């Protein structure tokens, strides 16, 4: 992902008919069909891209799988498994050569999870985009559709990512005491106060969101807010939340802003607590 990782509705309107662009709606099927969607968008519901045992967990809570297991098996946190993901993408008519533009109706946090999942399964980062402002931003100025596009199934190839941002629990423990690393808790201040990884700073993922536009706040404002928390490009950043959903949005935002060294603790607090690692309460 790069400075083009987040695109405007205007960009999407201009490019959605490009043959190598696939727009992906990650809302539930009933929303996609009943409420409408970006014309030409395919539907890959968010629950489908999570490991089966976690698919019903809409909130950031309990999980049983360890992030120390392989990505391919789907046991690294909440990942669905390579075969499952390849099937989902293939059924949606997506190939690794396509530029995927994802959106949801929740400030992009669910869509970002799809994009990070694709990244972890080897989709080229320069071909992944998040719609700024979610579905509501699109409908303010552009038409919606209830027609389901006809797509030809493809064989989606899963590979190792160009750069693997996943880190395990031992790497997080080491990062806590490293002055060149900032460990970031992307949950709410209330959750952070109840218990967080020692040394972690709190940066609620919603701090970068403009509630009125539902999109990203101005880049200079976001950079200032990040810097106030010590989250600067000169440091390696390690992100966590509860079940790796909210860190997906922050990961996309940081890469969009040019942060080059950003790591992703997929196991997050679900694994950290299960392994009996210490927490700090405030």
TrEMBL record:
<dbReference type="InterPro" id="IPR001763">
    <property type="entry name" value="Rhodanese-like_dom"/>
</dbReference>
<feature type="compositionally biased region" description="Acidic residues">
    <location>
        <begin position="58"/>
        <end position="67"/>
    </location>
</feature>
<dbReference type="InterPro" id="IPR051126">
    <property type="entry name" value="Thiosulfate_sulfurtransferase"/>
</dbReference>
<dbReference type="Pfam" id="PF00581">
    <property type="entry name" value="Rhodanese"/>
</dbReference>
<feature type="region of interest" description="Disordered">
    <location>
        <begin position="55"/>
        <end position="78"/>
    </location>
</feature>
<keyword id="KW-0677">Repeat</keyword>
<protein>
    <submittedName>
        <fullName>Sulfurtransferase</fullName>
        <ecNumber>2.8.1.-</ecNumber>
    </submittedName>
</protein>
<feature type="domain" description="Rhodanese">
    <location>
        <begin position="177"/>
        <end position="281"/>
    </location>
</feature>
<keyword id="KW-0808">Transferase</keyword>
<dbReference type="GO" id="GO:0016740">
    <property type="term" value="F:transferase activity"/>
</dbReference>
<feature type="domain" description="Rhodanese">
    <location>
        <begin position="17"/>
        <end position="147"/>
    </location>
</feature>
<dbReference type="InterPro" id="IPR036873">
    <property type="entry name" value="Rhodanese-like_dom_sf"/>
</dbReference>
<dbReference type="InterPro" id="IPR001307">
    <property type="entry name" value="Thiosulphate_STrfase_CS"/>
</dbReference>
């Amino acid at each position: 992902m790069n400075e083009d990782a987040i695109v405007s509705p205007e960009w999407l309107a201009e490019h959605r008919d490009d043959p190598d662009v696939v727009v992906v709606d990650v809302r539930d099927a009933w929303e996609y069909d009943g409420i409408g969607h970006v014309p030409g968008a395919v539907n890959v519901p968010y629950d489908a891209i999570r490991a089966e045992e976690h698919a019903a967990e809409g909130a950031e809570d309990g999980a049983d799988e360890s992030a120390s297991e392989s990505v391919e098996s789907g046991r690294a946190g909440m990942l669905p498994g390579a075969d499952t993901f390849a099937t989902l993408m293939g059924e949606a008519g997506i190939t690794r050569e396509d530029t995927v533009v994802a959106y949801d109706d929740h400030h992009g946090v669910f869509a970002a999870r799809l994009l990070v999942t694709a990244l972890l399964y080897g989709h080229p980062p320069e071909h992944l985009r998040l719609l700024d402002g979610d579905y509501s931003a699109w409908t303010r100025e552009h038409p919606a559709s209830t027609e389901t596009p006809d797509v030809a199934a493809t064989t989606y190839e899963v590979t190792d990512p160009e750069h693997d941002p996943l880190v395990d629990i031992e790497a997080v423990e080491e990062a806590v005491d490293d002055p060149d690393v900032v460990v970031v808790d992307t949950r709410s201040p209330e959750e952070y106060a109840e218990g967080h990884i020692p040394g972690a700073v709190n940066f609620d993922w919603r701090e970068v969101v403009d509630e009125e536009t539902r999109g990203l706040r101005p880049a200079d404002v976001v950079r200032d807010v990040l810097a106030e928390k010590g989250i600067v490009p000169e440091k390696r950043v390690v992100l966590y939340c509860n079940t790796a959903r909210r860190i997906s949005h922050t990961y996309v935002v940081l890469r969009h802003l040019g942060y080059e060294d950003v790591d992703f603790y997929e196991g997050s607090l679900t694994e950290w607590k299960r392994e009996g690692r210490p927490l700090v309460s405030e």
